[in-house]
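hey m, so remember when u said the tokens were messed up on ur end? i reran from scratch. heres the input so u can diff it against urs
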Amino acid sequence: MTGLKEFFNDLEAKDRSFLYSGIGLVLAVGAISILVLPVIFTSSCPSLISFKDTGGIGDTINGISSPFIGLLAAFLTFMAFFIQYRANKVQVDQFKAQQKSLQDQIDQNKRDSDLEKFEKKFYEMLALHRANVSEMEIKGRHGTYEKRKVFVAMFNELKFCYYLTSIAHSSLVEGKSISRLDEDDLIHIAYIFFFTGIGQTSDLLNQHIFKTTYSPVLLKEIGDLLKTAQKNFEKGVENTSYNKDITLTIKYKPFMGHMSRLGHYYRHLFQMVKFIANQPATFLSDKQKYDYIKLIRAQLSNHEQLLMYYNAASSLGEKWITKGYFADYRLIHNLPLPLADFGPAPIQKLGGSNINKYGKRIFEWGPKE
């Protein structure tokens, strides 16, 4: 009965009116055929034909009414099948809806589970990064640097190393011993010396890194200047000077290298950012990826971001730039540009614009357009 009501309710008004008229007409004609005609045929009214023979009348009525009864039976049979069809369709639609709802719930549960696993790993990696920073320490003759203060000291050491590299380079260019190099080359050379240090083992590493790219004369001249700075420190003073304008104040012996200290630090940091950036778009949107990487950035001090930039300016960390981690995800957004006053300018190094592909400022210290 419910299926019949739904059938009629689904019909348009004009179709419903037409169907009602058709059913009424069939019933009316049938009623006339069955009830009225026998009375007419058996009445005493004068007629050319006598219908007193009821057998003939019955045959006549049967002949007249049979098509209508057949049509009504066919219509009712059709309605029975149609109602059953509608009922089956409703059940199928309900089953499909339940199946879709169940699948949606399964997909949501899987997503929630995957997100929980992702965040668990992410926060474990973030905790490990904090532990790496808290364990940072450089002991020297004049004191000890710990935790984030280590990055301030290392940044000053790198800057001094760059100045000595520039001095050696300018001297040899003026003497026409070598061709002029650009800022990208100079910061690359300076960072490698800062990272590996100087000494017998460091020299082997530097030879492997530099290969035949740069003049041996230049590399030797830089190494000699760095060794002179070390000797000045060993005299027992904190100030290691090249001249009155270029001075390094530091508590430990400089240019001993930071490979064991920074190598692990940057590898872990890079893997953490890569872990987020490489998640499929169906799992994390670009906005969600940025939000997670922003949490990483919140752990980085200004000098950590400065040193990270110069790591990326060398061949050792160039993937920070080529993979878009600095520009797209603004990993070093808080880098104080006025302190990055040596080597290639950060904005130029990242393509010449302070606006990334999402229309956001890469550096908060930089121009708004």
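this time it looks ok to me. Residues 54-134 form the longest helix (81 residues). if urs says something different then somethings off w ur setup not the seq
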